[in-house]
Amino acid sequence: MTLAKVVGTLVASQKSMKGVYRLVGPCKADGSDGGTPLVALDAVGSREGDLVLVAQGSSCRWTEQTEGAPVDALVIGIVDSVSRWGVEIYPSGQGDGL
Questions:
Q1: What are the structural domains of the chain?
Q2: Do residues 3 and 29 make contact, with C-beta atoms less than 8 angstroms apart?
Q3: Engineered SS bond to 77: which of 16, 53, 64, 88, CB 3.0-4.6 Å?
Q4: Per-residue pLDDT reduced to its tens digit, 77-90
């Protein structure tokens, strides 16, 4: 799994899988930028600015919604907080929408 931040929504008029597609950018544990964005099917109702968990590869097709579908990245959770060594590092308390 990868931590990512929802940075946008993808709209496609022709698609093989119904649902909402999010543009997610891999990020560090504190929510800061960490890589090139990718497209992921949203299975949990995330919104722009959310820190999310993204599964990639064949494990994305292990749900009732995605079984047998051509899905390579799936938003599977919305992160409420992250702590490291007993110290909360996300949210940082700087008003990022969570």
A1: 2-90 (2.40.50.220)
A2: yes
A3: 53
A4: 999 988 888 888 88
